[in-house]
Write a structure and sequence with these properties.
Elements (H helix, E strand, L loop, with lengths): L1 H15 L3 E6 L4 H10 L2 E5 L4 H8 L7 E7 L11 H10 L3 E5 L14 H4 L8 E5 L9 E5 L1 H10 L1 H4 L9
């Protein structure tokens, strides 16, 4: 599921990276919160869509420290859009990875239905994008798209991917 894809890939990513801090929007989905918690990684919670607060928190850390900014394109509880463009700018400035949950946007936004990042032509500026095949697609399953090394690490080490049941052939 999208939930398991988030929880598993986030906890695995944060466990693989040495000395990492996760920056999470305060209105992130429970699957994100639980993935961070499961990893035991250091975390900073920034006020919802408050990029000044995000930057205030992230600049406290040395540039060489591993950092991951985790946010959503469309927040499930209130329908707000994340500020993808400016989060990418902050990530680039402070050498942070970006993890975007597109679960509430896939199938509805973008030329091919890939989500808000695609709609804004920013999909190649995001390091990791998670989506669900449920909701707008009307199927089942969750997926994570990323650079080859990140995807391989997630598929090989995340229990939610390794030990899950494969999708039915019809899907």
């Amino acid at each position: 599921s999208g939930y398991v894809a988030n929880e598993s890939s986030i906890s695995t990513l944060l466990n693989i990276l040495d000395d990492v801090v996760a920056f999470s929007d305060e209105k992130n989905h429970a699957s994100i919160i639980n993935g961070i918690k499961k990893s035991g990684a250091q975390k900073e919670i920034f006020r919802h869509n408050d990029l000044n607060h995000l930057e205030e928190l992230i600049k406290r850390y040395p540039i060489e420290k591993h950092k991951v900014i985790i946010f959503e394109s469309i927040y499930s509880m209130d329908g707000d859009f994340g500020d993808i463009k400016n989060i990418v700018k902050i990530a680039n400035k402070y050498k942070a990875l970006t993890y975007l949950d597109e679960v509430h946007a896939v199938g509805m936004y973008g030329r091919t239905g890939a989500g808000v990042a695609e709609n804004m032509n920013l999909q190649n500026s995001i390091d990791i994008i998670q989506g669900s095949r449920g909701k707008a697609y009307g199927a089942t399953g969750g997926a994570v798209a990323s650079a080859e090394g990140i995807g391989d690490a997630s598929r090989s080490n995340a229990g939610g991917f390794v030990f899950t049941t494969g999708l039915p052939p019809a899907l």
